[in-house]
């Protein structure tokens, strides 16, 4: 399938206010490689420059940013968008988990997202299925366009298991569609 990996907060500044997802750039690259090894065609668009305190390109107000425009150009060709984020271990909502899978309330059919959480769990990752909000605009607007999209958060203190995450995505897709 055609997969687009996006990472809206892929800069590398460590700060108390978490203006960047410091692991996101590495996760996106690693995931791309492993998904390509599984035979998928993968594009990646990351935003390594605009920090979240300046403009959150993952919100409605970020829609005109070049990062979002690049995504919208590729989206018609895609089967799946994977929005990659990372979280610091002190993030209380996600504490103790390796990976968080956002289930968006607007998802008309969340079988894929639930299957993905199950496969990640099967691969030994402490997985949280979390009810995300429509303010995660990249995923929300992709779903609105009738395309499948999922937001993943990875723990910045854990080793990123790119091969396992890629396999879980691949297996969840084949189990669902
Ligand atoms: Zn983020």
Can you walk through the features of this model?
Helix content is 33%, strand content 21%. The chain has 5 helices and 6 strands, in the order βαβαββαβαβα. The protein has one domain: Zn-dependent exopeptidases (Aminopeptidase, 3-Layer(aba) Sandwich). It has 177 residues and is of the alpha/beta class. The mean pLDDT is 95. It has a 6-stranded mixed beta sheet with strand order 2-1-3-6-4-5, sandwiched between helices. Helix 1 packs across helix 5 and helix 3 packs across helix 5. Zinc ion binds next to loops.
Would you kindly provide a brief summary of this structure?
This protein has helices at 24-37, 66-74, 111-122, 137-144, 162-176, and strands at 2-7, 41-46, 80-87, 99-103, 127-131, 148-155.
What kind of sheet is the major sheet?
6 strands, mixed
SSE series: EHEHEEHEHEH
Say how many strands there are. Answer: 6
What is the CATH third-level topology name? Answer: Aminopeptidase
Strands in their spatial order, largest beta sheet: 2-1-3-6-4-5
> Architecture, CATH level 2?
3-Layer(aba) Sandwich
Rough outline: globular
Poorly predicted segments: none
The amount of helix comes to: 25-40%
Ligand species = zinc ion
Instruction: Calculate the terminal CA-CA distance, rounded to whole Å.
Output: 11 Å
Report the radius of gyration as a whole number of Å: 15 Å
Residues in β-strands, percent: 15-25%
Number of domains: 1
Helix count from the secondary structure assignment: 5
Question: For this structure, what is the CATH class?
Answer: Alpha Beta
